[in-house]
Amino acid sequence: MRTSNEQPPPSVGGLDLARVARLFRDQEVEPATFVACFKISTIYAVRPEQPGIMVADLPGMGRWVRMYSSLERLSAQEGATNWMSMLGAEAIDLLPPDIGLVLDPHLSHAAAIPPRTASTIDPTLAPPKALPIRKGTM
Length: 138
Fold this sequence. Notes:
This protein is globular. The chain contains five helices and seven strands; from the N terminus they run H-H-E-E-E-H-E-H-E-E-H-E. About 30% of the residues lie in helices and about 25% in strands. It has one domain (about 15-120): Uncharacterised protein PF11572, DUF3234 (Trna Endonuclease, Chain: A, domain 1), CATH 3.40.1350.90. Helix 1 runs antiparallel to helix 2.
């Protein structure tokens, strides 16, 4: 478990998830490349009081979870809040298949993994589960 006083871990493999998300939005990389980068990156989300994750139900658009590529981006969008972090692969594995993921919503490089999409990408791209969910407070 990590607290807000700890530094986030370095990016895995030197990949910058926000940069890859921007390339994906600009159609300069394939969806599988973005998903593969997402799966090996540490991502952050608001941690609710009760165990679970905050899901937005958007009429006509389905159910979505907001996730962030850094604590700084989470804080800028959500303000001071409790947070949790995990590998992107863990987020995909933990969420029901009918819930999509939005990375860095409202930012110029925001990108989405629609419901069920991540589970249909080549499973060899997913690293094994190795890290527990970490929690903190800003």
